């Protein structure tokens, strides 16, 4: 009996090596088999620094900064160090020494046999797998977006749509859309709170039909800042004049701070050739054709304010005609540069009433006498060759042949002269097909 109790005590000792509580077996009077044996239990607690504190507090000691350090600005790179779960990928009872622990990594009794502690062959790839799992914890997987939902650069928020503003009473803002122009992290250093971190969001909202507004808002989280800016922009809507519902009313120059923008009116089908922030604003406002040149600072906030200032200050054709006391005439390529009077004043000035130094060029008038800074265009290298002069002389007799052909086809339906009705021979000769020739011969 005493021998059996001793074996049981030894087995319990093996099973509880890794636990906090150990069972110590003490045999009292193990002399006679018929006398009762007493098994005493003494508990010992193995505690240290690492198992006294939870994992979150231990990681906090590495990744955080004290309050005194925060006041001195030492918490700049705290967000870069990520907390890792070191228990991930590990199995209880399985460690560097691959040992079978009955009751922990294996059953105590398997069938009718008592499982004993024994060592298994080592796993050489175990450490590599654990390191690989821990390295993957720090990487952030960004969600994949469709090409239509993407912003200016992949899945980042600037340039992306965040929906219409929240409804206010009966107004649901149907047809409105909000797009993010800027989302950044800002810090504020204070003596009592230290370095406080917040998110700043700049958005623009509009209905695509000349009604738009923008707003800037801050919040502790990006989602709160975006929602606040979106709803705030809906309260600051402005009406913007559009020319034929596709472009600006006229060319204009606008400036805010050190940002200068030269905006040019373009015909239908031209598209938006401009800075990406201006393109996003135009999509919200409803402008489809535009050319804009930005000079100076390319700060998104300044570009936004400068462009909106220019849109608000636009003049209608009637206002410009009344201001100059002259007719406003349009010459466009689509109409073959045929003059088209857009607006006329009530009283028009005569030629002798116009001073010599007055700016009559429409573009110069819109740009306030400023000139767009353009890169000098150099002629192609082959224009200096002698062979290019010979080529030009050969092409002189047919220099406008393609344009004339297109014009004749558009005018008469085929290539013919305007004297064809009077002189039928003034018509392009077309060789009959071979089939018709064979029929005529037969």
TrEMBL record:
GO terms for cellular component: mitochondrial inner membrane; mitochondrial small ribosomal subunit. GO terms for molecular function: RNA binding; structural constituent of ribosome. It is found in: Mitochondrion. Residues 176-240 form the S5 DRBM domain. Keywords: Mitochondrion, Ribonucleoprotein, Ribosomal protein. It comes from the Eukaryota. Belongs to the universal ribosomal protein uS5 family. This is Small ribosomal subunit protein uS5m. It comes from Diabrotica balteata (Banded cucumber beetle).
